[in-house]
Design goal:
The structure is a single chain. The protein is mostly helical. It has one domain (18-101). It has helices at 8-14, 21-29, 32-35, 51-68, 72-84, 93-101; strands at 42-44, 86-88. Helix 2 (21-29) crosses helix 4 (51-68) and helix 4 (51-68) runs antiparallel to helix 5 (72-84). The longest helix is centred in the middle third of the chain and has 18 residues, at 51-68. The radius of gyration is 15 Å and the shape is elongated. Bound molecules: S-adenosylmethionine (SAM). The site of S-adenosylmethionine has 17 residues, from helix 4.
């Protein structure tokens, strides 16, 4: 197994194959304006442990850091807006837990 597959059983039963970071980044680049807009909404309907949501959140938080680092109030406010506009749906509980922790 590699780090994109946890087990053959999970692939067969749930189609669980994780996207590698290079592909996640390339796909996010296709909608780069949206990934860098702090309040853009994303819904990942089969989010796994959050590979896409985490990449998008990192991009948004980079923008928040650059734009609002001089005001703790704005920094916190826009950080919350960044994470509060990301939504994920996932079937397997261990993935849900891992995604939330990340
Ligand atoms: C191909 S993986 C993709 C995971 C993640 N999006 C990524 O690219 O790394 C598909 C995910 O969908 C989940 N899944 C399968 N059936 C589902 C369902 N009915 N509702 C929600 N999630 C489901 C699986 O558990 C698995 O984590």
């Amino acid at each position: 197994m590699n780090n994109q597959v946890k087990s053959k059983k999970r692939v067969a039963e749930h189609g669980e194959v994780f996207t590698n970071p290079r592909e996640v980044s390339a796909m996010c680049d296709m909608v780069i304006q949206e990934t860098e807009r702090v309040d853009s909404r994303f819904l990942e309907p089969a989010c796994g442990d959050g590979n896409f949501l985490i990449e998008i959140l990192k991009r948004k938080l980079n923008i928040v850091r650059k734009k609002y680092q001089k005001s703790i109030y704005d920094y916190e406010r826009f950080s919350l807006l960044a994470i509060g506009s990301l939504y994920g749906v996932e079937l397997l509980e261990d993935n849900v837990i891992a995604c939330r922790e990340r």
